[in-house]
Amino acid sequence: MPQLVQDYQRLINQAVVELPGATDAGIRQALFEVFHTFFTETNSWQETITVAVLAGVTEYNLVIAEGGEFVRLLSLVDTNDIGQPAVTDMVGVLTLRDTPNTAATFTATIAKTIGVPVDREGKPEIPEWVVARWEPVLSAGLLSRMMIQNKKPYSDKIGATFWGRRFLNGLGSVKSAVLHGNLQGANTWSYPRGFAMSRTSQRMGSGGTDTSFGV
Amino acid sequence: MAALATVTDYVNEARTLLQDKIAPYRYADDELMSALNVTLLDARRLRPDLFLGDGTTTSLSEVQSFITLDTTAVNIEQGFRLAVLLGVVGHAIARDQEDVQDARADAFLKKFRDKLLTLET
C-alpha cells in the first residue's frame, strides 16, 4: 500500500545518495519540476467534476476538490454519457459550444498536475500512488534534471542525457498505461469517437456522441 | 544538536582555526560575524539552492545576517556547514596585512568555493 510521505522521502534519499553535493532543498525544487512534467505529459492524475449546467449559461468554473492544478479537459458527458462539445482555457473555465436549453448535470473529467511543492504539513500535494507506482520514472527524471545543472558538484551532461532518455521512455510507458486503462493487452481506450475525431472537436476540442471503447 | 548550528558555533570554530582562542582576541566577535555574513552572501551567489527553504517559502531574496553573538540558528544544511566555516576563516584572514596571510586567506577561500562547487578537497 502506498505511503506517500515515506515513498517521497525514499525518492529524495536515493537522489541524495546518487548526487553528492546536492542540497535537499535543491532536490525538492527539481522534483517539483519532474512531477509537473510527469503529470502534464501523461494525463495520469485525473479528477471527475460534476458541473451543474444552467439553461442559457455557457461558461462554468471547473472547481478542483482533490488538490492539484488544472491541465486540460479530457471529456465532458451529460447524464446519458453522451459527449458534449466544449473547450477550456488554461485555468479551467469551461465553455460549452451549444447553449443549454434546460438545466442538466454534466460530468467533466480533467487532467491535473502538481500545484504547490508541499502542503501545510510538509507533504507533497500529489496522489498517494504516484511514487510507489512510478518511482523509477520519477527517479530518472530527477537525476536528469539535477545533472543538467551547470557548475554543481553533481553536474554531468552525459548522465543527464542518459537519465533524460530513461525519463522520456518512462513517460511513454505511463501514457500507454493511462490510454489502455492500466490493462494488459487491452485496446487503446479512446474518448468518445466524435470527441477525438469530429470536425466539432477540431474546432471546439470536445464533442460527439459515441461512448464506446474502441481502437 | 548538530555541529555548527548557531552563530556562536561558527565564531568559536573559526577561532580554533585562526588560533585565536585566548582573550584579548585578534579577531573581534563582530569582525567574525561580519565574515560570516559576507560568506553567506557569497554562498548565496554560488549555491542559491542552499537558500531555497522548504519549497513553500523561499528565502532567496533575503540572506540571513547577524549582528549579535548568540544562539541564533544559521540555516545551512549540515553537509555545507564546513564550507561556510572555511569561508568565514578565509574572510577573517584576508583583512590581515602580512603578505604570508594573503596566501592562507586564498587557500581557505578556495576551499570554501571548492566545497560548494566540486567534490574535490
Structure in words:
- The complex is a heterodimer of chains A (215) and B (121).
- Chain A has helices spanning 4-18, 24-42, 129-147, 157-179, 193-197, 199-204, and strands at residues 46-53, 59-61, 69-77, 86-88, 93-96, 104-113.
- Chain A has 215 residues and is α+β, with helices and mostly antiparallel strands.
- In chain A, the strands form two sheets. A three-stranded antiparallel β-sheet of chain A has the order 1-6-3. Chain A has a three-stranded antiparallel β-sheet with strand order 2-5-4, with no helix packed on it.
- Chain B has helices at 7-18, 29-46, 81-94, 99-117.
- Classes of the chains: A alpha+beta (215), B mainly alpha (121).
- Chain A binds chain B through residues 20-26, 28-29, 32, 116-118, 120, 122, 151-153, and chain B through 47, 49-56, 77, 79-80, 117-119.
Strand content of chain A: 15-25%
Average per-residue pLDDT of chain A, rounded, comes to: 86
Which spans of chain A of ≥5 residues are poorly predicted at pLDDT below 50? Answer: 197-215
Give the number of DSSP strands of chain A.
6
Query: Mean pLDDT of chain B, as a whole number?
Result: 90
**Helix percent band of chain A:** 40-55%
Strand order of the largest sheet of chain A: 1-6-3
Order of helices and strands of chain B: HHHH
Note the main attributes of this structure.
heterodimer, A: 215 residues, alpha+beta, three-stranded antiparallel beta sheet, 6 helices, 6 strands, 40% helix, elongated, B: 121 residues, mainly alpha, 52% helix
Brief summary of the model shown:
The complex is a heterodimer of chains A (215) and B (121). Chain A is of the alpha+beta class. Chain A contains six helices and six strands, in the order ααββββββαααα.
